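Researcher: Please translate sequence to structure tokens.
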Amino acid sequence: MEPLGATVIAAPLDLGPVAPRFVRLIRPDLFLLVETDFWPNWLHCLRRSGVATLLVNGRVSAQSHARYQRFALFFRPMFRTFSLLAMQTAADADKMIALGVDTERVFTLGNLKFATAPAATGRRDGSNRPTKVAWGFAPAAPLWICGSTHPGEEAMLLQVYGRLRGDLPDLQLLVAPRRIERRGEIHTTARAHGLNCRTRTGDGVQQGPVLILDTIGELAGCYAMAEVVFIGGSLVAAGGHNPLEPAAAGVPVLFGPHMEDFAEIAAALTACGGGRQVDSVDALTAALRGILADAALRRTMAAAAAACVRANSGVVEHHIEAVARLLAGSTAHR
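Model: Translation complete:
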């Protein structure tokens, strides 16, 4: 479905006369490029045509930076075609400047992925939040939520849960698989670990310490009732998932080593103390044991996670200001 007032068309091949013809036909006032999908011929053509260009959500990994430096004769002129480069972090901006881009064209405007987070509350007492009792959990017992888990991951998480129950026999667990049709597979895995579990859509027992969330759209609303959250797709090589929803709810966040798709957000949460990255089942067990045993630590991590989201809440407005500035300049020169 196309947004109101928008026309979606395929981008041209970045070859020979194709891009110049495309630019002549479209006659754009502004060109926005997201992150790192660079098209050199297209960018040079836009520059020659006097079209303002803006890189949004720009990032430069260590690997990319080494490649840009190695082939600087190719990349430096391409980066210089941009009217403005809006980078996610100051470190990203410094890397662009080191590559020879003029400092007045490089800005640190933050990560637009923070705009996907709900408003950070950092509170756990809102009347509109689901209660543990309503979800069939014991109200006073701690709850660990594992969100958007992937194949091969649940077995590790259930192993950790079994270990933790030796010290915390009342610990409760909510597992929300990325694909809800995997509920039966996870149920079988739980039984293999000696655990009885229930499903959200099941007609049987609706109370108990282990729940498989096999519905769509309810996970985000559950995070606020957890003592700690683990982000799925990160103990296995699946790129991870967005940790901002539990962070905005004011809950400590844990994730594995594979957060490639959300590396900057994971790094921000780790740096502020609202999240922790673990690299193994043993490390996850130790981190959970420490967090669940220390209420003061949980409060500190929860507050830091929510503050991290709040600190980046103006990222969209900053980008809109940059767009408005470029459009004003583009209109003035036409």
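Researcher: Any highlights?
Model: The chain has 13 helices and eleven strands.
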